[in-house]
Amino acid sequence: MPKRIGRYTLRLENSPAILSYAAVAGKKEGLGPLGYEFDKIYEDTTAGESSWEKAESLMLRDALSRAIEKSGYTPGSINYVFAGDLLNQGIASTYGLRDLGIPFFGLYGACSNMSLSMTLASVYVESGAASLAACATSSHFCAAERQFRFPLEYGGQRTPTAQWTVTGAGALVLAEDGPGPFITRTTGGRIVDKGVRDMTNMGAAMAPAAADTIKNFFDDTGASPNDYDMILTGDLGLVGSRLLNELLKQEKLDIGERHRDCGILIFDCENQDVESGGSGCGCSAGVLCTHILNLLRDGGLSKILFCATGALMSPTSSQQGDSIPCIAHLVEICANRPQ
Amino acid sequence: MPKRIGRYTLRLENSPAILSYAAVAGKKEGLGPLGYEFDKIYEDTTAGESSWEKAESLMLRDALSRAIEKSGYTPGSINYVFAGDLLNQGIASTYGLRDLGIPFFGLYGACSNMSLSMTLASVYVESGAASLAACATSSHFCAAERQFRFPLEYGGQRTPTAQWTVTGAGALVLAEDGPGPFITRTTGGRIVDKGVRDMTNMGAAMAPAAADTIKNFFDDTGASPNDYDMILTGDLGLVGSRLLNELLKQEKLDIGERHRDCGILIFDCENQDVESGGSGCGCSAGVLCTHILNLLRDGGLSKILFCATGALMSPTSSQQGDSIPCIAHLVEICANRPQ
Question: Is the ipTM of this structure higher than 0.90?
Answer without folding.
Answer: yes
